[in-house]
Amino acid sequence: MFTYKKMNPIAKRGTEGLSRNYQETDDLTQADFVLVRSADMNEVMIPDRVLAIARAGAGVNNIPLDECARRGIVVFNTPGANANGVKELVLAGMLLAARDVVGGINWAVSRADDPEIAKAAEKEKKQFAGSELSGKKLGVIGLGAIGVLVANSAVHLGMEVLGYDPYISVDAAWSLSRSIRHISDVNEIFKECDYITIHVPLTDETRGMIGREAISLMKPSAVILNFARDLLVDEAAVVEALEEDRLHRYVCDFPNPGTIGKKGVLITPHLGASTEESEENCAVMAVNEVVDFIENGNIRNSVNYPQCNMGKCESASRIAIYHKNVKKMINSFSAVLENYNIANLSNTSRGEYAYTLIDLEEELGSADLDALSTVDGVIRVRIVC
After folding, report:
1. For residues 200 and 222, is the Cβ–Cβ distance under 8 A?
2. Are the C-beta atoms of 35 and 4 separated by less than 8 Å?
3. pTM score, whole prediction
4. Are 111 and 361 spatial neighbours (Cβ–Cβ below 8 Å)?
5. Cα 119 to Cα 61, 102, 217, 257, distances in angstroms
6. pLDDT per residue over 93-125, tens digit each?
7. In degrees rounded to 5, what are phi and psi of residue 160?
């Protein structure tokens, strides 16, 4: 029997498929794994019993990743599960910035009691007309799951698309339309593009990456779209540029007092991944990842441990060893297991941490389990099956 705790409400579709071997608990100290969305776990005392944390979403800045890695707690996320929902809102943001739809709606509501509103509309509509997206340049910073979908969709809207991502994956590159111009200098996007959308994770390197210097390179007619993380953009610099007509629009999904109601700012209340479909996709993916890890020891989409997949656990004993990424660890494990027949083994690493799965044709004895745990550099050992 395994127990789990939900730190936030999770779409029922994610947990309804769990077998009878899984039971929900309200007590974190009794949880084998945790499901979380936006709850801040950085100040939470995470018990040693917890084996994994699965984030139903992409961003993981609400989870203490380094601490979890040091303690052998694998953190998962769900990249791509909410990508379509965010993509559609980014496209809506571009359209709202291009055509003053919001202003037009507000004007119509304000004249609700005017019997001559139809005639008045013909006179006033020019102020809300705006421009079309077709033929404009879009710069996409970050070509992950969301960025690729936005870029490809913009091509179909008739836009010229520039993409920037120095760390683009092979899968993303294959998915990218051949019409998209992949550039190596992000400043080209700042200088050339009419619309600039950012889709990168928040790190020390990316924090405030769109600030005064970047804005100084942009056209006065440029539109910045931020549906990734608020701190990627220096919003004080953006507001200042909007007030001085050095920027046309800022469309953002993260409301705060510094931007709401300011000139040229369009704010949505964090709607990007809030569709029913996105929430269900994230919940299902998070649960599937953590169940595969609990039952088989496999790691897919972890943000603090390496990927590892040895399929379904069908051996007499499968051992999961979390350890430092140092030399001769496999030799040390083999020495402890010299009296066992090793049927399969996988060792993968990520930065300073590594993960080893070992299938044995005999059950591992308790004394040998203890011996593995005391190998220098080992963080955690678990008998998976």
Report:
1. no
2. yes
3. 0.82
4. no
5. 52, 20, 42, 38
6. 999 999 999 999 999 999 999 998 998 899 889
7. -90, 125
- pLDDT tens digits, residue range 110-168? 999 999 899 889 988 999 989 999 999 999 999 999 999 999 999 999 999 999 999 88
Q: How far is residue 318 CA from its own chain's centroid?
A: 31
**Burial state string for 56-94 with b = 16 or more CB within 10 A and e = fewer than 16:** bbbebebbbbeebbeebbbbbbbbbbbbbbbbbbbbebb
The length of the chain is: 385
User: 266: helix, coil or strand?
Assistant: strand
Instruction: Choose among 25, 288, 48, 80: nearest CA to 199.
Output: 80
In sequence order, which ranges of the chain are alpha helices (DSSP H)?
12-15, 65-70, 83-98, 101-110, 117-124, 145-156, 170-175, 186-192, 212-217, 235-243, 276-296, 329-336, 366-373
Q: Residue 357 in 3-state DSSP?
A: strand
CA dihedral for 182, 187, 188, 190, sign (positive or negative): positive
- How is 3-46 classified by DSSP, letter by letter? EEEESS---HHHHTT--TTEEE-S-GGG-SEEEESS---TTS--
Phi, psi of 235 (to 5 degrees): -70, -25
* Amino acid sitting at position 308: C
First to last CA, the chain: 13
